[in-house]
Specification:
Blueprint: H1 2-47, E1 54-70, H2 74-80, E2 88-103, E3 110-115, E4 118-122, E5 126-141, H3 152-157, H4 164-188, H5 190-207, E6 212-216, E7 223-224, H6 245-253, E8 256-257, E9 264-265, H7 274-278, H8 306-311, E10 318-323, H9 328-337, H10 344-354, E11 367-370, H11 375-381, H12 385-397, E12 407-408, H13 420-427, E13 431-432, H14 436-439, E14 443-451, H15 455-466, E15 471-479
Parallel strand pairs: 4-6, 5-7, 10-15, 11-14, 14-15
Antiparallel strand pairs: 1-2, 2-5, 3-4, 8-9, 12-13
Helix pairs in contact: 10-12
Length: 480
């Protein structure tokens, strides 16, 4: 009997072990089948990168100052007769960005599996597009007769000057030089572009389930993309020039120092030397769609900053031309506190570049109103810098200036060292409208020198809206 029980127990144990082995075998096979399905799905998912189309991997933004020369006697005059008659020269500042991209729809783009979870991606050739964002005339010099003998003041009084065809020819030459500089920069950035592309593709592939990715790039340098349908380059801004012999003589004898570095600057329309002009920090996208506060990094679309969401400012939008930093700071401080009217030409250049980028309803404004000073400060300073800036913007836009449509009812202290909350309390109820009939139903464009937190512009806009203004917009030279 004991032998029978022992056999039964051993039989049950053997059956259990066989059942367990069979179950483990089935589970392993199912896992293998699921793993193969996952590998197929991962490969198929990475192949879906083609649906992205054109993948932008790197963008470079730069400024270049380009000088073009032309002589009335051609190349012979340029080489040998500069002592007799100098060349015409035109200096222009080109601000452009270079966008590097890969077209993933190209047949050269391929994904292959080298091992389980490991993939190799073959990339198509890299292409780049050059987009000229802004063109500014910095200076132009006409031909000079006997430059060693005759001083500049005499040559300026002689008949002559730039003809339109001369300007167009030099402009085309400068544009081709700028494009050549952009192409050279694109070739030098090839390594950084590939690094950025590799990191982007690795991140995308790991998101699809790949363990490791090897990216292969074709030989050769990035090529320039076709430009069919590209937006035309902006028209360069040129200031109106008038000859003043006394000012020319004064600038010749006592050249003004550059506001940024102190080096001599020649010419009545230059407050900054070419090097400092290149260091002007221009406000560019991305920025808040309401207050225009710039943000670092990439933002996929329009966004509203925290301050605008929290306070809901009374103005529809505000835009600034440059950042209140670098050589911009001394220009504005000299204009504000030391009657530095020589900075107005530079400010006019900045506003001329900003105005076309403002929202489309900018041209619908009925009046420009400068942020007012208190009458005591106005008497002591003898001028309002915001009014001077408003007149500059009026010349650019054709919108009339109405400086007496808004008053400052009480004097406030400086806001330089105040926080955002303190600034808002400092200017609350400070501004008033003397004639509601004048502003009722009007679209108003406010103008000031610097916008820091937006508290002053918001207080002005609220006073105008409470008086019946249909809409209020704002433009400032700098953003703090």
């Amino acid at each position: 009997m004991q032998q029978i029980l022992t056999n039964i127990v051993w039989g049950l144990l053997c059956a259990g072990l066989l059942a367990l082995a069979w179950k483990l075998w089935r589970r392993g096979g199912a896992a293998g089948r699921r793993g193969g399905s996952m590998e197929v799905k991962t490969t198929a998912a990475i192949e879906e990168l083609r649906s992205i189309g054109v993948l932008s991997v790197f963008k470079a933004v730069t400024k270049e100052i380009v000088t073009a020369r032309d002589h009335s006697l051609g190349n012979l005059g340029k080489r040998y007769l500069e002592w007799l008659v100098t060349s015409r020269k035109m200096a222009m500042i080109f601000e452009f960005d270079i966008d590097f991209r890969y077209d993933l729809r190209d047949p050269a783009f391929a994904v292959s599996e080298t091992a389980p979870g490991r993939y190799r991606i073959a990339m198509p050739p890299c292409a780049y597009a050059v987009n000229v964002r802004n063109i500014t005339f910095y200076d132009e010099q006409d031909e000079k007769l006997l430059p060693i003998i005759l001083p500049d003041v005499v040559n300026k009084l002689l008949p002559g000057g730039f003809r339109e065809e001369d300007r167009n020819r030099l402009m085309d030459e400068a544009r081709s030089q700028a494009e050549g500089l952009a192409e050279g920069l694109a070739r030098r950035l090839g390594g950084e572009v590939r690094t950025s592309a590799r990191q982007t593709l690795e991140m995308l592939a790991r998101g699809f389930g790949a363990q490791s990715v090897e990216v292969e790039f074709p030989e050769g340098e990035p090529r320039r993309a076709a430009t069919e349908g590209a937006a035309p380059s902006p028209a360069p801004y040129r200031m109106k020039r008038s000859i003043n012999p006394f000012r020319t003589l004064a600038d010749l004898l006592y050249p003004r120092p550059c506001a940024g570095c102190g080096r001599p600057v020649h010419g009545p329309e230059a407050a900054l030397c070419p090097d400092c002009q290149m260091r002007v920090p221009v406000v560019s996208l991305p920025y808040c769609s309401v207050c225009g506060d710039p943000v670092a990094g990439d933002v996929p679309g329009p966004y509203v900053c925290t301050w605008c969401r929290k306070t809901a400012p009374a103005f529809a939008w505000a835009r600034s031309a440059v950042r209140y930093a670098g050589p911009v700071r001394p220009c504005i401080r000299n204009l504000k506190y030391r009657a530095g009217f020589w900075a107005l030409p530079e400010i006019e250049r900045w506003l001329a570049a900003l105005w076309p980028t403002c929202p489309d309803d900018r041209a619908d404004a009925d009046a420009i109103i400068p942020v007012p000073l208190h009458w005591t400060r106005r008497i002591r300073r003898t001028y309002n810098q915001a009014t001077l800036i408003a007149r500059v913007l009026s010349r650019l836009s054709g919108i009339p200036v109405r400086p007496f449509w808004l008053w400052r009812l009480r004097r406030t202290g400086t806001q330089t060292h105040l926080t955002a909350a303190q600034r808002a309390r400092n200017v609350a109820g400070v501004f008033g409208v003397p004639s509601r009939r004048a502003v009722r139903g009007r679209r108003i464009l406010l103008v000031d020198d610097v916008m820091t937190t937006g508290a002053t512009l918001d207080a002005c806009a609220r006073a105008l809206r409470n008086a019946g203004a249909a809409a209020v917009m704002a433009v400032t030279v700098a953003r703090g």
